Amino acid sequence: MVAIIVGEEGEEQQRFVVPVIYINHPLFMRLLKSAEEEFDFHYQKGPITIPCHVEEFRSIQGLIDRETNNLHHHHHHHLLCFWV
């Protein structure tokens, strides 16, 4: 799990804890890229801050969760095919 802070400048920020698998997801990678462009990661201490509206992040989080759950279920289906 990875702790992140989400929120645009001037709005209340929220802390989220997301699975490490998010880091490789294209949608999350875009969020990280925008954070990198807005903040200098070399000098940031603590959790990564994602400059995104909290509700927008929740929507993205839902998409990623659905995709990873479907992928996880899909892999189990294939594994069961090999059990005889």
TrEMBL record:
Q: Supply the name of the protein.
A: Small auxin up regulated protein
Q: Which family does it belong to?
A: Belongs to the ARG7 family.
Q: Which GO terms describe its biological process?
A: response to auxin
Any signal peptide, and if so, which residues? none
**What is the taxonomic lineage of the source species?**
Eukaryota, Viridiplantae, Streptophyta, Embryophyta, Tracheophyta
